[in-house]
Structures are given as C-alpha cells and as structure tokens.
Amino acid sequence: MGEKTASSNPPPAAQARVAQLRELLARHDRLYYLETRPEISDYDYDQLYRELADIEQRYPALQAPDSPTQRVGGAPLPAFQPVRHRRPMLSLANTYSRDEVRDFCSRLARLLPEGGYSFVVEPKIDGVAVSLRYENGLLTLGSSRGNGEVGDDITANLRTIRSIPLRLAVAAPPPVLEVRGEVYLPRAEFAALNRARAAAGEPEFANPRNAAAGSLKLLDARQVSARPLAAIFYGCGEMPGLAVREHAQLLRYLQEAGLPAPPRCWECPDFPALLAAIDALQSVRAEFPFETDGAVIKVNQLALHERLGVTAKSPRWAVAYKFAPSRAATRLRAITLQVGRTGALTPVAELEPVSLAGSTIERATLHNADEIARRDIRVGDLVTIEKAGDVIPAVSAVDTAARTGAEQVFVMPAQCPACGGPINRRPGEIAWRCENLQCPAQVKRWLMHFAGRDAMDIENLGEALADQLVERGLVRDPADLYQLTAQSLAGLKRLGAKSADNLLAGIAASRQRPLSRLIFALGIRHVGLGMARVLEQHFDSLDALAQAALDQLEGIRDIGPVASASIADYFAAPRTDGLIRRLREAGVNLRRLPDAATADRRFAGRAFVLTGALSRMPRAQAEAEIRRRGGHVTASVSGKTDFVVAGADPGSKLERALKLGVAVLSEDEFAAMLSDGPVPAPAAGSATPMAVPDLRRPGELPL
Ligand code: IVH
C-alpha cells in the first residue's frame, strides 16, 4: 500500500500503467461477461483491480469516471431524479397465436405494398427495460422506463452492472448514442440469490424479473453491486449520425461497441420463415441465462420504421409473440407457515396435487402475509398456478367467482406454529418472525444450513435426522454436533451403527473446512457464500472478523452497509461468543487455510460441467476442487464448456457434450487432472462467443 500523496503530476510510468490496467480489466470484463470465456481467474482479476485502485488512490489526478474502480459510486441517494426520455420508450403490441402473427404480416403488406423488407426475430427478454446514453463514447446517463416518457435516473445502479461498458469500445464513437435494452438477473444467480435470502431469513423474490426490478430500485448502489445483474441491448433511442440501415446491422454494431446483444436472432424473409424462427427460438430458449417470455418480430429496414410510425403506444414495425406460460387450476387446501433459520415465517400454499409442465405440484410459496391479504387469497379457493421457465410455481390468480362462501380468510397466528413462542414483525420488515431462539424449527433449519453442501458439507445429516437430534435435545446449536458420540446417537430411529459412524466421520471431517465455509455456515443474515469468500480474503481468522469495526467492514468492496451492519450485529449478539468458543474447543478450524488460491491455478478460466453419479468424491468436493484451481462449474453444457466430467448414468448432458464436441473426462481422468495431470488446451471452436448475434435464416439453422 503506497502512501497517499495529493500529487497532481503522477509520473508517466503510473499513467501508463493505469491506462494499461484499465484496458486489461475492460478486456477481461468483456471476456467474462459478454463472451463467457474468461481467460484469467477471479483471483488474478482481483489482483489487477487492486493494483489499479492502489495507483488511483496514490495519484487522485488519475481517477476517471470510466475506470472500473468507479463502478460503485458513493453515498446512497435520497431519491431518484426524474429523466425525460429524448425519445419515448415504447412498448410492444402482443400477439398470442400464429394467426395474429399472420395478421401483423398482412397489415405490413397493406402498408408497404412495394415490399422490399425483411424481419428480425429476437428473444423477448423478461427483464426490466432501461435506456443508456453514451456521449462521445462515455456512459453519462442510465434510466428506467417509467411511464415511457419520464423514467428515473438510475445511472449509479446501472454502472454497477459489469456487462455494461462504461466506455464504448469503438474507435470513433458517435456524439450521442442512446441504447435500449433489458436488465435481468441470470436464472442461476436468481436461484442462488433466493437460496441465500432464504438462508439469511429474508423474503424470497417471486421470479427473476421481480428480483431485477427490486434491485434497480435500491437507492444504494453498493447494495446493487452485490446483485449479479446482467443486461442485453436490442435497440436504440437517439443515434444521430450512426450510419446503419438495418436492425441486424445495429445489433452487430452494439455488439462491437461492447454492449451485450441478444444471444440468438434470426433474419426472416417472410411469414413461414417467421414461424420457423419462433419454433427455433422456443427450442433453444431454455439455454439462455434469462427468462424468455416470447419472440419479438421487427422489420429489419430502419428507414421503414420512420415510415410505419407508431400507434398510441407501440410501433407498427414490431410486435411481440408471447409464449404461453404453463398454468393449471387447483384447490388451495391450506396455508401453512414455514419457519426459517432466522425465524422468518413464510406462508406456503398447500395445494390439491396438480400436474404442471411435467411435474406434480403440491406446494407453492405465498411470499408473505401482506401479499395474501392484498390478493385476497382464501383457504378453499380455486386458484391458478403458473410456472414460467424454471421458476418456482406461484399462485397467479384466484377464481373469486367460484367461491361458495365456505372459504376462509388467512389470519396470521399469534404464536409460532412450531414452538408456540411469540411472533413479531420488526419495523420496516415484511416478514413475521418467531422470536424464540430455541424454537426447534429454527434450530433444525440452522443445522441443515450449517451442514449444507456449500457450508460445512456434513454428509449424512438429513432432515429426518436433524429433526430427531433437536427433538431429543441432543443438539441446540451447531456446536453441539461436535459433542455427538456413537453412544448418544445409539437410540435414534432409522440410524444403524454404520450410518451413525458415517455421520460422525462426516462431522469430524467438517472440522477442517475453509474459513469461508464456516463464515457462511454461521448463517449471518445477508452473508452468502460469495460474501463469505470475500470476507475470508480480508480476515485471516474468525476472531479477526469478529473484532472488525463497522467502518472496516464497510470499506470492503462488495460488502454493502446492510451486510456490514448485519455482520457487526451478529458478532455483538450475546450468544455468538459462546458459540465460537465451543466451536474452537471442538477443534473446528477458525483460520484461513494456507492459500490454495496462489498455489495451483491450472484450471483458470476453464468451464466444467459435472454429470452423472460421481463415486470418487462428493459432487460438492469436485466443484470445490475445480474452483480452487481457478476453474468454474456451470449447470448446463454449451459451446463454452471446456470439460464434462461424466460419472455413472450421465444422461443428456453427456449426449450434448458429444454433439458439441466438448471434451469428456471419466472420473479417473478428472482425478488425474486434479492431482497434477496436464490440462488440455481448449478445443478449437469451443470458445465461440455466444453473444454474436446469429442472424442466419431459420432454414439454415442447425437445430
Ligand atoms: S423492442 C419500440 N426487443 O418488452 C420497441 N423489446 O412488452 C421497443 N423487450 O418495452 C421494444 N425484449 O422492455 C424489444 N428483444 C426485445 C425485447 C423487448 C424484451 C421488452 C421491452 C418492451 C417490452 C414490451
């Protein structure tokens, strides 16, 4: 760390290095977020970032608004300022059938009798509409759609999104370029965010769109930066002097300028080709990281957009074709309350079993008591259950006309259904909570969290066993796990001597988990695994973290004020001291383990997919081993996957890997690679940037 000088004349070497670091970081952001083929590990990225931040701190004259260190701005805003859009942000007319798409084509044929046009079909991204303004290449304004005429200035929030360039990557940027697109929370990130929120006792988001919208409404950009939002841009507002004549060309231009474009688009000459493109989109959309709620059909020739003009709210040159969500009607049998680890009570709809998009649904979340009241959902109602994409099913509608009068309004009980303890709602919070720290339902959830795969990874500690341990008073908090013996487990139901041994072995092995896992396992509100890893980088022991002052925590990039306060509160709480002391006495590792991060980075930037049953090591361990060496693990196989590790009964992922020519490793080969075997270079073609719009004719698509 260099000393702070207010030098206004930084040496040329520092200037050159700053320019070089900014370019490097922008390039790695691009590789990571746009092309999803990182070349360096997160660790190496952080090293470059820190070096840049250090130099900028030493020479404040070198600071610049487009520096990657300036993504997350200063203090929270009191409110968003209104922004009038220079060009309105229109919405699209919807169509729901092929006949309506045909009507759209017929209308165009009437309006443009001389022909000479084609179409582009794009995914309709189910996110939050935003507009970005670049002046001379520099991002100067980011706004929400609002009512289409006036939106909010959410520049500070949009700047935190790492796939949004702060400066356009073109040599001669136009004086003004306004781009329109959609911010979304990638599906995998949505699932992780909800898991973390559930683990942290916070209400879950209903779907990725709500999560993205809620995130962009936060007034503190530091909190937004902790949400892994992404964006896709598909159009322009003001763009004086930009010499593009076709929409397809515009998409390519945006892509070249470093803005993420739709992953797949199709250029279509006529109505039959449109239908083929819609079918093609429907068959690939599950692979997109965002929810796709339809197809957008646009006339390709931009000059015709002017000529066709707009109706009251939507352009005549484009239309949305909406995919039908999977829906089913069923009876709401009861509303029960699930007690979370921090005591939050989440109402759950208990349903008459119904089949929906291939699975039987018996339960759906109802989020919170206010939501039930607002939507007047009553026990006994006939309700519609809806599931879009991978999203958890939700009650989307209530058939009030079908009521008999026997339906019952839901009333929040005065006591916790699990322990009979008092329940309470803290000011400003949506969730009701059971206040009894000994509530067995809370302790069970806490144990399950502590033992979870991403936490202390204690094998063989399932829900049924956790129930018995708590009910028999053997375990009142996770530290008690380390006191269990073969003798104390002897009387438990469905736990033979061998399983008891396995459980004890699992508990013993968990004593040596890395510090980040322990931090996560403690279940501090707002602290997910990602944040726990960040904390581990800054504190070499749990004691050091426990003693950290609030401003020390707040000073860490990626740790917002809410999480900082929650961490400080956690360590100030009376029972935390005792818990840590007993974990220490039980021999649980409370220190940062020797830094594996610098030792072996042979998998840096490589993407792995695990499939089938692994017999040599638990899946979570395989994932951890990959990450420790700088690689990353993704859920599905795509052109960007480097290796598929196939265990027994691998299924469709293996088929897809073979089809795409992705290298497939047996478990033995994987183990050899882990120990010190060579890591093959990426296969040619496996790193095709997915973000390049694929503007082939539907007939030519290899589907
Ligand atoms: S074009 C003037 N293209 O859908 C036309 N919109 O329901 C402006 N959307 O307000 C929109 N994906 O927020 C366009 N590929 C796409 C889109 C898209 C999602 C959103 C957009 C729009 C809404 C209309």
Radius of gyration: 27 Å
Overall mean pLDDT stands at 87
Bound small-molecule species: 2-(butylsulfanyl)adenosine
Instruction: Tell me the total number of β-strands.
Output: 25
Distance between the termini: 54 Å
Shape, principal axes of CA atoms:
globular
Name the structural class.
Answer: alpha+beta
Q: Could you characterize the architecture of this molecule?
A:
The chain has 703 residues and is of the alpha+beta class. The protein has 25 helices and 25 strands. Mean pLDDT is 87; it is low at 1-6 and 683-703. The structure holds 2-(butylsulfanyl)adenosine (IVH).
Fold topology:
Layout: H1 12-34, H2 42-58, E1 82-84, E2 94-95, H3 98-111, E3 119-125, E4 128-135, E5 138-144, E6 150-152, H4 155-159, E7 176-184, H5 187-199, H6 208-216, H7 221-225, E8 230-236, H8 247-256, E9 265-268, H9 271-284, E10 292-299, H10 302-308, E11 318-322, E12 326-339, E13 344-356, E14 359-365, H11 369-374, E15 378-379, E16 382-387, E17 394-398, E18 408-409, E19 423-424, E20 432-434, H12 440-451, H13 463-471, H14 486-489, H15 497-509, H16 515-521, H17 529-538, H18 542-547, H19 550-554, H20 561-572, H21 574-585, H22 596-599, E21 607-611, H23 619-628, E22 632-633, E23 643-646, H24 652-660, E24 663-665, H25 667-675, E25 695-696
Helix pairs in contact: 1-2, 12-13, 16-17
